[in-house]
Every structure is written in C-alpha cells, then in structure tokens.
Design goal:
single chain; mainly alpha
Length: 260
C-alpha cells in the first residue's frame, strides 16, 4: 500500500527543506568568507539531497524515464552546460577578475547541488504526491509550482538580496516551475531540468558570488526598477505557462494514444 501525505505536509515539507538549504547557502556569506564554509554548504546540500531521495523512496514518488529521449536531452544538457560555463569563464578573463578555476568549479558544484535538491523535492517528490490526490496533471503542476514559488520567500534570509526584488523572484519562480514540470512530464529527463534550473541560478548569482558585485547590485536597484521588472516577469510567465500547457497537452495526447 502506498504511503500518503497530508495536505499540510504538502506545504510544510518543501518549505522547511528549502528554508534549511537557504540557511546552508547563506552560511557562506554570514561573516568572513572561507573555503571551509563553501565546502560545509555543499555538504549540507548533499545531505538534503539524500534526505529527499529517502522521502521519494518512502512515498514511491518515481518517474518513468525513457532511455532514448534521455540520451538526447543528456547530450543537449551537457552542451548547454559547456557553452554556459565557457561564457562565464571568458567574462572573468576579459574583465581580469581574480577567480581561480577551483573557486569557479566549487561554485558550480554548489549551484548544481541546489538544482538537484530542488528538482527532486518539487518536480519529483511533491508533484507525484500531489498527483495522487489530484489526478488532473495540469492542476497538480500549478499547485506544485505555486508552492515552489512561495519557497523563494526564504531569500528574505539572504542579506545580499534586495528585499523588494524577492517578489519578482517569487513571480518568476512560478512560471519557471510550471515550465520545468512540463518538460519533465514531456521528456522524462531529470538531467535536463536540473541543468536548466542550475544554469538559471548560475547566471543569476555568479556576479554576486564570484565577482563580488553585491554593492553595485544593491545601489542600482530601487522601487522604480522593481515595477518594470515585475511587469516583465508577468509577461514572461504568460509565455512560459503557454509553452508549458502545450507541452503537457502534447504529452496527454501521446498517453491517450498509447492507451488505445
């Protein structure tokens, strides 16, 4: 008999785990920077990944993977990862920033650890638990993505984030969550969505963490910057949700055809 989870746990489990990983990430920035803090943060995230996998096994929240499609998406994801890291590396060299290959690699590992954790937690564990209560896949996608977006309020704990910008992050996270979930449903590739999620975080934070440009970011962001950003996030979300809906509709048609 499959184990079930209560409605309250739908919200509490992911929000608490994201809260913990935010604290783990923030540990790097509280006080003086050190390599030990970076490695402890990475170890902390790996522990959360293991915990999430245990919960996936416990609640039997598995996905069906297609080997052929996974090979293509795996190779495509590797190519995307290569050109992304190469682009940032060129930026560092051209601007003559003092960033070692070791620091860059460690940062990339931290970013991917966060991506792995959040994708396993939301797109696998939480989604398939919600799907057991709400068989409508589109509704389950929206609920999961809503909880995923709420989890980004945990960035209030990060002293380097401009507080007013967090609302934009929450709005944008909803659209991204819907798109990533639809990609997983359509292509059955965890590596694809983990790579996309991690690269979003990578490009969104490398200037702050690797190049230490937090002061510039803080000074240039104001309420007048917030409103256009919010409007852009809403427009972008509309596009992402439309694409996601088409992907899910396509997958449902395929499943219906296979049943008959």
């Amino acid at each position: 008999m499959e184990k079930t989870i209560s409605s309250k746990q739908f919200f509490l489990i992911p929000l608490c785990l994201v809260f913990l990983t935010t604290l783990g990430s923030g540990y790097i920035y509280f006080g003086a920077y050190s390599e030990d803090k970076v490695y402890l943060s990475l170890l902390f995230k790996l522990s959360l990944i293991i915990l999430t996998i245990v919960l996936i096994v416990k609640y039997r929240s598995f996905i069906q993977c297609k080997l052929r499609e996974n090979i293509f998406t795996f190779l495509g994801s590797l190519f995307l990862l290569f050109i992304s890291v190469n682009d940032v590396h060129k930026t560092i060299l051209v601007a003559n920033y003092a960033v070692s290959t070791k620091d860059h690699f460690t940062f990339l590992c931290n970013v991917f650890a966060t991506g792995v954790f959040e994708e396993l937690l939301f797109r696998v564990l939480l989604f398939y638990l919600i799907l057991t209560k709400y068989p409508d896949k589109w509704k389950s996608v929206l609920i999961t993505s809503f909880i995923f977006s709420l989890a980004h309020f945990s960035n209030l704990l990060n002293p380097d984030v401009v507080k007013i910008s967090i609302l934009n992050q929450v709005v944008f996270a909803f659209g991204i969550g819907v798109l990533l979930q639809s990609l997983l449903l359509r292509f059955k590739s965890l590596f694809l969505i983990i790579t996309l999620h991690s690269l979003l975080n990578y490009f969104g934070s490398y200037k702050l963490i690797l190049l230490h440009q937090e002061q510039t970011i803080q000074n240039n962001y104001s309420f007048t910057s917030f409103l256009p950003s919010l409007f852009f996030a809403l427009i972008l979300n509309s596009i992402l949700i439309f694409v996601a809906y088409q992907l899910i509709s396509s997958q449902l048609k395929i499943e219906k055809t296979l049943r008959y």
